[in-house]
Specification:
The protein is an alpha+beta fold. It has one domain. The protein has 2 helices and 5 strands; from the N terminus they run βββαββα. A 3-stranded antiparallel beta sheet has the order 1-4-5, covered by helices on one side. The longest helix is centred in the middle third of the chain and has 13 residues. The chain is globular. The N and C termini lie far apart (37 Å).
Length: 137
């Protein structure tokens, strides 16, 4: 673990996942970056405002987006959408296969793997999941 950014070896199942440590009824604010090979994300920016030019996500420093309430849509150019711009820039820098965050009210899933994305999307939009909105358009 490096500055609250734990790393794990390749997981073959969910048993090794560090998830919902506060209990199933409490938001865990968990965030995962998945890669097909080892990758160093660096440290999480803490105790400083991440929206300043000096603190923006750079190699070896990342912003934990699960702690922010925003929609990571790709409608670039909107000056009010600074977090979205920072989110996509950070993903472009690190090139994860998938990004998953589980906040208090929203789950964000982004993946380069189209097949995996469609499987996850279909699970979240099925009748077995209540309260989900179709964000894939």
């Amino acid at each position: 673990m490096r500055w609250i950014c734990p790393y794990s070896p390749l997981l073959e199942n969910t048993e090794g996942l560090f998830y919902q440590v506060e209990g199933p009824d409490t938001a865990g604010f968990d965030e995962w970056w998945t890669f097909n090979q080892p990758h160093d994300l660096g440290e999480v920016i803490r105790n400083e405002p991440p929206r300043t030019d000096e603190s923006r996500a750079k190699p070896h420093r990342i912003i934990a987006f699960v702690n922010n309430y925003f929609a990571p849509d790709s409608s670039g150019g909107d000056p009010k959408n600074v977090l979205s711009e920072m989110f996509w820039s950070q993903l472009e820098t690190h090139q994860p296969e998938s990004y998953i965050s589980d906040g208090s009210q929203v789950v964000t899933f982004v993946s380069r793997n189209r097949q995996l994305f469609h499987v996850v999307h279909s699970l979240f939009t099925s009748d077995s999941v209540s309260g989900c909105e179709n964000a894939a358009g």
